[in-house]
Write a structure and sequence with these properties.
Blueprint: H1 4-9, H2 25-29, E1 63-64, E2 68-80, E3 88-93, E4 102-105, E5 109-116, E6 124-127, E7 148-153, E8 160-166, H3 172-178, E9 181-187, H4 189-192, E10 202-210, E11 230-233, E12 236-237, E13 240-245, E14 247-254, E15 261-265, E16 271-276, E17 279-287, E18 289-292, E19 297-303, E20 312-317, H5 324-327, E21 329-338, E22 360-368, E23 377-379, E24 391-393, E25 398-405, E26 412-416, E27 422-426, E28 429-430, E29 441-444, E30 449-455, E31 461-466, H6 470-474, E32 478-483
Parallel strand pairs: 2-5, 4-9, 10-14, 13-21, 22-25, 24-32
Antiparallel strand pairs: 1-2, 2-3, 5-7, 6-8, 8-9, 10-11, 11-12, 14-19, 15-18, 15-20, 16-17, 16-19, 20-21, 22-23, 25-30, 26-29, 26-31, 27-28, 27-30, 31-32
Bound molecules: CU-O-CU linkage (C2O) and copper (II) ion (2 copies).
Length: 484
Amino acid sequence: MLSRRHAIQLGLTAGALGVTGATGYTAQALGARDKPGPATRPAGPVTKFSVPLTRPPVLAPVRRTAAADYYSVVMTRSRREILPGTSTEVLTYNGSFPGPTIRARSGRTVVVKQVNALDMPTSVHLHGGANPVADDGGMMDTIAPRGTRTYTYANAQPAATLWMHDHAHHMESEHVYRGLSNLYLLGDDREDALGLPSGEFEVPLVLRDARFDANAQMVYEMDDAFNRTTILVNGRPWPYLKVKARKYRFRLVNSSNLRIFVLQLSDGSEMTQIGSDGGLLEKPAASPTLTLSPGERADVVIDFAQYKPGTQLVLKNLLGPGPVEEVGQVIRFDVGERVRDSSRVPGTLTTLAALRTPTVQRSFELNMDEPGTGEQGYINGKSFDPNRIDTTVNWGTTEVWTVTNASTLIPHNFHMHLVQFRVLERDGEPVSASEAGRKDTVLLLPGQSVKLQVTFDSHRGVFPYHCHLIDHGGMGMMANLKIV
Ligand code: C2O
Ligand code: CU
Ligand code: CU
């Protein structure tokens, strides 16, 4: 949740927890390094809330055995309708934008055969998954054009909202922007037993922004936060969703390259967060706002039974950059009839592992050339070198990492492959309930510092950690961790 102090750090002053104009401080502060470019409007304006929300298709296994599900995915360049009545060239997994959802179960193996039918190298990373190096989809471990690669995921971790995305070095930013990402929903029996809303009442909301030209084609420029002002949910602009007057579970992912969302319902009522990156929270956390930086996930229950049938609720975004009429709105929920609802949100959702005693402390400083002075990103003063090991840890150790955003205007976040960490504090204070669970990505506003605790007890090998404002990772804000 966005505290008043954080709001002030973002330049959102009292009474203006809204999106400022494109020239305001907020816009500058939110990762936009340059002035807005020439206005790029789609061919014909998009009427907000005029297209229904669609759900990414759920991928069917090509084969099932007693222990594993086998999937087959082909990466292709395709055309999809994003803006109504137009056709946009996108990069897809199996032709869908965003890619199809994989449903997996804890303890049951998933094997995905990825065929790269594109004309450039790709790499597929399961973000939030604890997998060996060979299955992690590393930046340098790419699938050549026309090549095939099989990734195996043991799913030795609890239920969680994970996602998959391209990670080919220097290309991941554009690849993800153009469509190469998909949800990976990991379930387990303990979660099923909770009685949370399910089936048609469990809805993925994959949020992102994009910039379109006059021909409805996506414009990709590095570090272009200012101009990506069309908000997409599950690949459609500002959709609406007809809901029944009952509880819904929403699986939110911020798949944007740079945009941070601070979400709030238009009536200001509380949303109940039940999970974060790595799975369920111990207890539901109610808050009127929900902050999601790129790569972060939130599992949220909204009870529409509190509204009269016919109510229209907009999920708003309180943060820039961009004009409030555009980036300030995300999706509209149109509340319909009351129905019987036997779903529940129990007061205890899971039990997190007790924190072990840390034996090693380290510090990391994220920095980036300030606007106009260069285009490099750094961790501890160094830009990424794939051949350099930046940090070596011993398998089995528990460490506390203090990560600081040294930029004065630009927000960053911090993502580690392989592990789920726990955020102990932000700027010396305990974090809010929504950030107290298993996390793999954590937001760092300019000047902020977080302490994370992490135990390296799964796989050995070299894994990256990086800023997940993906353009920044591509600019060098990435480093290598070796677990020996
Ligand atoms: Cu979401 Cu290095 O990844
Ligand atoms: Cu990752
Ligand atoms: Cu960054």
